[in-house]
TrEMBL record:
The keyword Cell inner membrane does not apply. It comes from the Bacteria. Keywords: DNA-binding, Phosphoprotein, Transcription, Transcription regulation. This is Response regulator. The keyword Disulfide bond does not apply. It comes from Streptomyces amakusaensis. The modification 4-aspartylphosphate is found at residue 55.
Length: 216
């Protein structure tokens, strides 16, 4: 089945550009558009997109609050892909902490845009570049370190978390660890459960904020 995408940006030209790029792909359809985060929840409920490509800065409701609203009020919510101008923007990091699955630069090439949508839709790897890793490390705290200690990850679970932080997919981790993908999935599930993380992005944020994984 095709990946369904909702575009949310207050700039019509940005929406038009994203639509043109995505609709040129046989496996992606644009289900709808919105000019502000305030319209996202009702549109998600009616259109049931797989991915929401959402601008982080909008006049009425920004991408951070819109992300929180979707994840808090929609059953089986879509993946949120934050679309932004600046990769080291603290708004981007706040959106990731709020539950966004990754982010995309507005100046990205068409192939990168398509790859990002497919990646977050699949949900088994991350869009978490160096600039965001550095931001995550800056938010480190004793509380984050204590939470990581309480999680009591096994040696293999810690290895899986480090590979997740490098953006590896389940298949890539399986190849690196010389195990089956189902084994990797089990380890990933265990890591998320022990950290109390909603998804991989939240687990990787915890890894950087606790100092368990260093940026770079």
């Amino acid at each position: 089945m095709a990946i369904s995408v909702l575009l949310v940006d207050d700039e019509p030209l940005v929406r038009a550009g994203l639509r043109a790029v995505l609709e040129a792909q046989p496996d992606i359809v644009v289900a709808g558009e919105a000019a502000d985060g305030a319209a996202v929840v009702p549109l998600v409920r009616s259109l049931r997109p797989d991915v929401v490509a959402m601008d982080v800065r909008m006049p009425l409701l920004d991408g951070i609050e819109a992300t929180r609203a979707v994840l808090a009020s929609v059953e089986r919510p879509p993946k949120i892909l934050v679309v932004t101008t600046f990769e080291n923007d603290e708004y981007v990091y706040a959106a990731l902490r709020a539950g966004a699955a990754g982010f995309l630069l507005k100046r990205a090439r068409p192939a990168e845009i398509v790859h990002a949508v497919r990646l977050v839709a699949e949900g088994d790897s991350l869009l978490f570049p160096a600039a965001v890793r550095a931001l995550a490390a800056e938010y480190g705290s004793g509380e984050a370190r204590a939470a990581m200690v309480r999680a009591a990850l096994t040696e293999r679970e810690g290895e899986v978390l480090r590979l997740m932080a490098r953006g590896m997919s389940n298949a890539e981790m399986a190849e690196r660890l010389i195990v089956g993908t189902e084994t990797v999935k089990s380890h990933v599930s265990a890591v998320l459960a022990k950290l109390g993380a909603r998804d991989r992005t939240q687990a990787v944020i915890a890894a950087y904020e606790s100092g368990f994984v260093a940026p770079g």
